Amino acid sequence: MKIQIINGPNLNLLGIREKSIYGDADFNSYFNSLIQRYPDQQLTYFQSNNEGEIIDTLHEVGFLYDGIILNAGAYTHTSIAIADAIAGITTPVIEVHISNVYRRESFRHKSMLAANCKGVIAGFGLDSYRLALENFISK
Ligand code: DQA
Q1: pLDDT tens for residues 11-68?
Q2: Are strands 42-47 and 2-7 parallel, antiparallel or unpaired?
Q3: Chain segment 87-134, per-residue pLDDT in tens
Q4: Measuring from atom 12 of ligand 1, which residue has the nearest CA?
Q5: Lesser CB count within 10 Å: N end or C end of the chain?
Q6: For residue 72, which atom of ligand 1 is closest to its CA?
Q7: Is 92 exposed, middle or buried (0-12, 13-18, 19+ CB in 10 A)?
Q8: Which CATH superfamily does the domain covering 2-138 fall into?
């Protein structure tokens, strides 16, 4: 299957940023471990701090790929534009979060995206991405 992982703002700082919340692994190492673990899957990864680039990537892959795993970071809680992009494409999107957003500040409890997604996985650390991948490949 062709699966695109998209990470949004500040997720380029994984392994450096707020380690008590997000852990000390960087995403590129984690992504390489996913490639090793799932050699039969076509996994691609994109990160951007810019809302428009996230939307452009959703448009680019969203009619071609089998699944999209999206951690939109703080845009999760604010972006009607990303919500509309998810609604406008045909590829199913799973929203993921590294942290359990429901144990954190109340502004993180609201997702603008979730209603347009296949489902949401939050709170399992980087394993949230693998759990989303398992959902796509088990279908
Ligand atoms: C996050 C949770 C968001 O609230 C936050 O803004 C992030 C990361 C997570 O993966 O836990 O940047 O999406």
Answers
A1: 999 999 899 999 898 999 999 999 999 999 999 999 999 999 999 999 999 999 999 9
A2: parallel
A3: 999 999 999 999 999 999 999 999 999 999 999 999 999 999 999 999
A4: 73
A5: C
A6: 13
A7: middle
A8: Dehydroquinase, class II (3.40.50.9100)
